[in-house]
Each structure stands twice: as structure tokens, then as C-alpha cells.
Amino acid sequence: MSWTALYASFFATMAFGILFNVPRKSLFTGGLVGMLGWAVFVALTVNLEIDTITATLFAAFSVATVSQILARRYKMPVTVFSIAGIIPLVPGGMAYATIRQFIENNYTEGVRLGSITLLMAGSIAFGLIFSGVITETFSRKRGYPKGNSSGG
């Protein structure tokens, strides 16, 4: 795993945190969340050779779970950490490649790349939702108050 890629994911997450107007005191921690998500994704795809869709699901789940924990610890909405934290996982480059294939009349490749892009986006959404459901389930069993984990 490249340290350069980890640093890039950290700073990209912090930059999007600034764009989304997250509180300054959470920028560094949010950057670490984004870096964690990217590290999980790369570790699964490169080291364990898991497909990108499954790796995206686990990375998004990791980001969301850590975001839930940090939201309770710092008494902030979970979205402060999770929204910026998933930025390194968003398949923007693949979406660009999809559109490019359609423009170049390579429809078969465009459909293939578009399908992968949509599945990756769905994996991100499912990872975030699944983490929220599990966190709420365990919080209720232990008697923890809801707090700011629901985003409000």
C-alpha cells in the first residue's frame, strides 16, 4: 500500500470537509476516517484480491462504523464524519470512463463500466445503511441513548 495514496486520501477528505463546512475541530479526525476507508479498500483489493464492489462495501461499512463511534464520542452528527469519509471511495473516475466510452461509441464497454460504477455506488449506500442499522441495534440492547448518531 502506497503512503502517497493514504496521504492523498487524508487530504482529499479534509478538503471535502472544508467544502462541506464541517466544524474545524473535526477536520483532522474526518481525514483519518477517509484514510481508513481508502486503506481498507486497497488492502482488500490489492492484498486479498477481493473484487472492487465487495471491497467498497466493506470500506464504506468501516467508514460508517467509525463515524458512528466518533459521532458519539465528539457529540456531533454522524454525517460530519461519514459524508467526507466516503469521498475517497466514490467511483468518479470510473463514471468519467463510462461516459467517455459512450461518447466514443463503445457502448458495450460503456454499459460494463456503468454497471460496475452503479454497483460500487450501491455498495457505498448499503455499507452506510447497514452500519447504521447494526449500530442502532446494539445501542438499544445496551441502553445507550440515541444522541447525535441519527444526524440531527
Structural features:
152 residues, mainly alpha, 76% helix, globular, ThrE_2, ThrE_Dicarb/AminoAcid_Exp, transmembrane, membrane, cell inner membrane
Question: Could you outline the blueprint of secondary structure elements for this entry?
Answer:
Elements: H1 3-19, H2 27-47, H3 52-74, H4 79-85, H5 92-103, H6 107-142
Task: Offer a quick outline of the entry.
The protein has 152 residues and is mostly helical. It is built from six helices and no strands.
Please state the structural category.
mainly alpha
Largest sheet: none
**What is the typical, i.e. mean, pLDDT?**
92
The radius of gyration over CA amounts to 17 Å
Strand fraction equals: under 5%
Task: Return residue spans where pLDDT drops below 50 for at least 5 consecutive residues.
Answer: none
Domain Threonine/Serine exporter ThrE: 7-133
Main location: membrane
Membrane topology: Multi-pass membrane protein
Organism: bioreactor metagenome
Task: Note down, in words, how this protein is organized.
This protein has a domain at 3-90 and 128-142. It is built from 6 helices and no strands. It has helices at 3-19, 27-47, 52-74, 79-85, 92-103, 107-142. Helix 1 crosses helix 4 (79-85). The radius of gyration is 17 Å and the shape is globular.
